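=== RUN LOG ===
request id: a7f3
mode: sequence -> structure
chains: 1
length: 168
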Amino acid sequence: MAGEIRDFLSWRGPVSVNVFVIGAGNTPLPEEAFHLVGMAPDAFLPFPLLEQPEAIERLGLVSYDIDFDDTSLDLREYTRAVLRRLCADTRAVAWAAFEGTFHYDELLSDVVANQVYGYCTTGTEPVVEWDIAALRGEEWRHRIAEARAALDALLSASDIQDGKSRTD
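=== RESULT ===
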């Protein structure tokens, strides 16, 4: 794992992969669902997020802090597997981001694009970027904008299913 990424993921001690998923409901998956690619977390903290905006609450939003005590682990493939797992069973958008980057007004926005290091939408393969310079680049911002467009489509579909339009 690149030293810089490891530093960002282990700033509080253990290596912490932080992922979010919209569309999979508000009930977290069990810890066993995160035993992937031969790795089992040392700590697993699921958080159904509070005070969700109505459009998100209909779909559900859960955050997971997945910690590993061994800071030498290369968690790129693990992050990819987690994102794939979160999008596997329902129409969802999932992403991995550095600790402290979450705010409802900035979900997958240009403001936080350089702090998102992976994403997945149902029906696609997860994308994980492990290079800090690439995360700061224009191409990555465009890719995160595509993930945001998928999130907007998911939220719009939820509005339509509930019989609401964006102008209500």
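=== NOTES ===
The chain has a mean pLDDT of 89.
The CA atoms of residues 114 and 136 lie 5 Å apart.
=== END ===
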